[in-house]
Automatic annotation (TrEMBL), chain A:
InterPro entries: CO_DH_flav_C (IPR005107), CO_DH_flav_C_dom_sf (IPR036683), Diverse_Substr_Oxidored (IPR051312), FAD-bd_PCMH (IPR016166), FAD-bd_PCMH-like_sf (IPR036318), FAD-bd_PCMH_sub1 (IPR016167), FAD-bd_PCMH_sub2 (IPR016169), Mopterin_DH_FAD-bd (IPR002346). The keyword Secreted does not apply. Signal peptide: none annotated. This is Xanthine dehydrogenase family protein subunit M. Transmembrane segments: none annotated. Keywords: FAD, Flavoprotein. The keyword Transmembrane does not apply. One of its GO terms (molecular function) is FAD binding. SMART domains: CO_deh_flav_C.
Length: 316, 168
C-alpha cells in the first residue's frame, strides 16, 4: 500500500474542502472496497478523509412520505430497518443478496453506490485497462469476459457496475443528495448518478471532486410485490451474473431493473411498460442493441429467464 | 499516529503507520495471533473480529479508524479453562480440521446468533417482516463470508445449532 496521510472530519463542508483542495485525497467510510483496491495499488490516495463521525447515520421519514437514508447507514442497518423491510422490500432483498455479513456491517450506503467494478483486468495492474489507466487499452475485450457487460458498454471498456443495492435504488427512483466544499447541496437522480462512460471509462460517477454524498432519499412506497432475483456462480457471497429487481403490481404492471449487465443499473422504462406481455417482450426491449461477447452472450437469455421466474412468483 | 484500542476489555495504546490494518495491529503489534490472516482481502473471513459488538473483516479496516473502539478477538471470547459456549460447541461437534479459519468462524458464529436475535434479515428468509429463525439454511447463508478449506461446514452449522438451541 502506498503511504498516505489521514484525518478524521468533524463536519461535512470541512470534509468536502479537505478532499476538493488536495489532488489525490479521497473520502473513506467503511473502506471495504477502497482498502481492498489500495492493497493492490489500483487506488493510490495520498490523503484519506475519514467521514465516519459525520451525522449521516440515521434513516428518517421525509415530509413527502418517503425515507431519507443517511450516507453512513450501514448495509446491515438499512436492510434491517423495519420500514425498509415492509415498504421497500426490494431494497432489503438486494442488500442481503450481496457481499457477506461482515462486509455488510461495515459497508456504507454511499460507499456501496461508489464501489468500483470487479472486472479482473481492472484489478490486475499488469493488464491494460482504460478505467485504471486511461489510454492504456482494454485487455478484457478479447479476454475472459464471462462476468462482464453486455449492454451500455463501449469500445474502451466492457466492465459492469457490480453492486446489488444500487439496482434496487434505481428501481425505486432514489435521489442522491450531496454537499460540496462551498456548502452547496445538490440532488442527483439515481438514473444519472452512474454514468455510461463511453470513451472515458475512468468517469463512473456524476460527482465533482470533493463532492460528498450526505444521503439517499426514497420516494413514497410503491406497494406491489417486491423481488430481487440474483443469479450467480455460487448460492451466496458472489457477484451477480444477472440480477433482476422488480416490483409487480396486482394488475401485472410494474418496474424492472437489471444488475450485472451494464456500467450502471439497467432500467429501461419503455421495456418495463411491456411487463403484462411477459419476460420475453420486456427483455427484448430492455436489451435491444446489446453487444455481448461470445463468453457472456448467455446473460441475455438468462435475464429473460430470471425475469420470467419473478413474474411466475408474482402470479403464484 | 497515536491511538487507543480497547481490546478484550483492556485499553491498549499504540502508535501506528496509517497503513496498518486492524488485523495487523492485533497480530503484529499487540501479538494477539488468534485472529488469522487468510486472503487479506475480505474474501475468506479468517480475520473476523467483533468491533463494538459487530463482526467485521479486520483486514479491510484501518486501525486508525478504530481509535477508541472496543475490539473482541477469539482470545477475548473464552480461555482454555473457560471456553465460550460457541468454542465448546465447535470442539464437541468437530467444527474444524486444520483450525486456521476457526477463530474467524467462531467470532462470526457468535455474531450470527446475535444478528438473528436482533432481527437482521438474510437472503434465505421467505418473509422479510417475520423474525428470522436459527435454521440450518440460515446458518449456512449467514456464514458464507467464512471459508473453510477443510470443509467442516456441516459440523460448524451443528455447533451453531446447539448454541442457538441453548439460547432459545
Amino acid at each position: 500500500m502506498k503511504a498516505f496521510t489521514y484525518e478524521r472530519a468533524k463536519d461535512p463542508v470541512a470534509a468536502a474542502r479537505a478532499v476538493a483542495g488536495r489532488p489525490g485525497a479521497k473520502f473513506i467510510a467503511g473502506g471495504t472496497n477502497l482498502l481492498d483496491l489500495m492493497k493492490i495499488e489500483v487506488e493510490v490516495p495520498t490523503h484519506l478523509v475519514d467521514v465516519q463521525d459525520l451525522p449521516f447515520d440515521k434513516i428518517e421519514q421525509t415530509p413527502e412520505g418517503g425515507l431519507r437514508i443517511g450516507a453512513l447507514v450501514t448495509n446491515t442497518d438499512l436492510a434491517t430497518d423495519e420500514r425498509v423491510r415492509r415498504d421497500y422490500a426490494v431494497l432489503s432483498r438486494s442488500i442481503v443478496a450481496g457481499a457477506s455479513g461482515q462486509l455488510r456491517n461495515k459497508a456504507s450506503t454511499a460507499g456501496n453506490l461508489l464501489q468500483r467494478t470487479r472486472c479482473p483486468y481492472f484489478y490486475d495492474t499488469n493488464m491494460a485497462c482504460n478505467k485504471r489507466k486511461p489510454g492504456s487499452g482494454c485487455a478484457a475485450i478479447g479476454g475472459f469476459s464471462r462476468q462482464l457487460g453486455v449492454i451500455g458498454v463501449s469500445k474502451s471498456c466492457i466492465a459492469t457496475f457490480p453492486g446489488d443495492m444500487a439496482v434496487a435504488l434505481r428501481l425505486l427512483d432514489a435521489v442522491v443528495e450531496t454537499i460540496d466544499a462551498k456548502g452547496k447541496t445538490r440532488a442527483i437522480p439515481i438514473a444519472e448518478f452512474h454514468m455510461l462512460w463511453g470513451d472515458h471509462p475512468e468517469r463512473e460517477f456524476a460527482l465533482a471532486p470533493g463532492e460528498l454524498i450526505t444521503a439517499v432519499t426514497l420516494p413514497q412506497p410503491l406497494g406491489g410485490k417486491h423481488y430481487y432475483e440474483k443469479v450467480r456462480d455460487r448460492a451466496s457471497y458472489a457477484f451477480a451474473l444477472v440480477s433482476v429487481a422488480a416490483v409487480i403490481q396486482p394488475d401485472r404492471t410494474g418496474r424492472v431493473a437489471f444488475g450485472g449487465v451494464a456500467p450502471k443499473p439497467w432500467r429501461v422504462e419503455a421495456a418495463e411498460a411491456l411487463l403484462p406481455q411477459g419476460a420475453v417482450a420486456v427483455t427484448a426491449k430492455a436489451f435491444a442493441g446489446a453487444t455481448p461477447t461470445k463468453d457472456n452472450a448467455f446473460k441475455l437469455p438468462l435475464a429473460t429467464r430470471a425475469l420470467a421466474s419473478v413474474i411466475a412468483q408474482a402470479k403464484a | 499516529m497515536p491511538m487507543m484500542l480497547k481490546v478484550n476489555g483492556q485499553k491498549r495504546s499504540l502508535s501506528l503507520d496509517t497503513r496498518t490494518t486492524l488485523l495487523d495491529a492485533l497480530r503484529e503489534h499487540l501479538h494477539l495471533t488468534g485472529t488469522k490472516k487468510g486472503c487479506d482481502h475480505g474474501q475468506c473471513g479468517a480475520c473476523t473480529v467483533l468491533v463494538n459488538g459487530k463482526r467485521i473483516n479486520s483486514c479491510l479496516s484501518l486501525a486508525i479508524m478504530h481509535d477508541g473502539d472496543e475490539i473482541t478477538t477469539i482470545e477475548g471470547l473464552g480461555t482454555p479453562d473457560k471456553l465460550h459456549p460457541m468454542q465448546a460447541a465447535f470442539v464437541k461437534h468437530d467444527g474444524y480440521q486444520c483450525g486456521y479459519c476457526t477463530p474467524g468462524q467462531i467470532c462470526s458464529a457468535v455474531a450470527v446468533l446475535e444478528e438473528i436475535a436482533r432481527g437482521v434479515p438474510s437472503h434465505v428468509q421467505d418473509d422479510l417482516t417475520a423474525a428470522p429463525r436459527a435454521t440450518n439454511m440460515e446458518m449456512r447463508e449467514r456464514m458464507s463470508g467464512n471459508i473453510c478449506r477443510c470443509g467442516a461446514y456441516s459440523n460448524i452449522a451443528d455447533a451453531m445449532a446447539e448454541v442457538a438451541g441453548g439460547m432459545g
